[in-house]
Amino acid sequence: MKNSFTIKINFTGGIISPGELMNILSAAASAGIRSISFGLRQQLFLKGLNEVYDKLATELKERNISFETGAEQYPNIVSSYPAEEIFITKTWLSEGVYKDIFDAFDYTPKLKINISDSKQSFTPFFTGNINWVASDSQHFWHLFIRFPKTNNIYEWPDIAYTNDIAIMTKDIETGIVEKSALFYDTAEANGPLLYERVMLNKQYNVKPAETKITLPPFMLPYYEGFNRVNNQYWLGIYRRDEHFSISFLQDVCALCQTTKIGQLCSTPWKSLIVKGIEEKDRALWDTMLGKHQVNVRHAANELNFQVEDDCREGLALKSYLIKHLQKEDIRTFGICIGIKTRRKSEVFSSILVKRKPMFTLGSVGFFYRYDILCAKDFNPNERTGFTFSHNNFKWKLPKLLRQAIVDFYAHTITRQEATVSGLLKRKESAHKEETVEWIHQCPKCFSVYDVVFGEPENSIVPGTAFVDLPENYCCPLCEESKKVFVPVLKSSLLFVG
User: Fold this and answer.
1) What are the two backbone dihedrals, phi and then psi, of residue 407, each rounded to the nearest 5 degrees?
2) What is the pLDDT of residues 395-431, one digit of tens each?
């Protein structure tokens, strides 16, 4: 609406203290704002009518709260920190490492920056322009450049040390911005040229990336409700209309302060996560949710959607599609469904529903049609792989979306079967001599172990090589140890036919 405004407030990495959020909420409430929302880049939005803008801006400035109005000049730094401890395991990347990186940024970035653990798929890897992904080597990071306003991704040949992320990011951004004709909004953006310019005469702690990073398959966890981790709970809060009331969030902040919870996390799914809830405080959170009638057990197929920030049309289309998915009881586990209504916007998705006008008059579109696009291998961290269907009327979308979802599962099954087939072939090749020609025999009772048959009655599946049997394996007849078994040519036994 032309008579309204939108203010954006960044939380680096999606982390905000309850006290800081309470300060923002107080300023908003003083100006008559009743709700806030979170964005795809883990930022906060305040929206209101123009008549209250001056009061709100004054309130924020008096509280020393940095904000941006209208067009986004300074994107938020996205991180996978909200998933740390709850969706990520067996990783060297801890809370302290994240915060050391954030503290090292001594400037406000103009390009989009993502900082992600490679052991998760909750946070997008490549929706930024400068994308850092943790390597398997402790404290070293892979780097992927997605040049602004393009789909061109360049993989940096070096991995960089944690302490150099901030300064390298600054130098890379400077190199792109100062030579925008070379690197900005052009299909000719040259990664090796950027690498050469950035690394020239610079002393970073880097080393060659000897292997390419292996990212996990996309799997969206259920990020809502009370969930137990070790001896504590975390709480995920999702709102169907993306609006969180000021009064509710004020109570959330107050309860955090009362129960000594020092931070809140906003997610790329426009939700809020509260970590570290003690068992003794669980009832207090239940009571607070009940007070505000906040539901925390929505259907999974609602949580799978990504919609552009502050997009009423996108939310309406999402609601329309969810209604049909639920009516038909369609499974959407593992799929990210995106909705795109604006040019040049970026939506993270396995399957993308894209709205486009048949013609425009000024900035107003008329007679909308819809395309359904699928990411390469249905992986939302990839670019568009193919167009599933185009120029459709809205009423056809539910059926077409169902068909695209069926294709997703068919593709998943095919990939899994190919993976299993490949593993079996490698295993067969590795143990060809044993599986084809040899068996192992107990010298006491002459019982045999044949890899072809295994011992299903003892939970040993067919195809299990003798060397892969557990150390405590023993003869099922006389209980002699595995160690005394001897290899025997299968063809030498009389019963082989």
Assistant:
1) -65, -40
2) 999 999 999 999 999 988 887 777 666 766 666 665 5
In a domain, 110, yes or no: yes
Domain containing 158 equals 88-208
**24 and 55 together in one domain:** yes
* Structure tokens that stand for 233 in this block: 């709970």
- For residue 313, give the nearest of 336, 359, 345, 283 by alpha carbon: 345
Q: Is the dihedral of CA 92, 93, 94, 99 positive or negative?
A: positive
Q: Is 309 inside any structural domain?
A: yes
Q: How many CA atoms lie within 13 A of 477 on its CB side?
A: 10
- Work out the pLDDT band at 363, boundaries 50, 70, 90: confident
Can you read off the two tokens belonging to residue 277? 């809830």
Are the beta carbons of 111 and 75 closer than 8 angstroms? Answer: yes
Residue listed under structure tokens 């806030």: 36
Tokens of 368: 């909308």
Q: How big, in percent rounded to 5, are the helix, strand and coil portions of the chain?
A: 35, 25, 40
Residue 468 has pLDDT above 90, yes or no: no
CA 317 and chain centroid, separation: 23
> What's the rounded Cα separation, in Å, for the pair 413 and 406?
11
CATH of the domain at 480: 2.20.28.10
Whether residue 173 contacts residue 130, with contact meaning beta carbons closer than 8 Å, is answered with: yes
Total structural domains within the chain? 4
Maximum distance among all Cα pairs of the chain, rounded to whole angstroms: 96
Q: What is the pLDDT of residues 430-441, one digit of tens each?
A: 555 444 577 888
**CA 70 to chain CA mean position, Å:** 27
pLDDT per residue over 249-280, tens digit each? 999 999 999 999 999 999 999 999 999 999 99
Query: 412 near 378, Cβ under 8 Å?
Result: yes
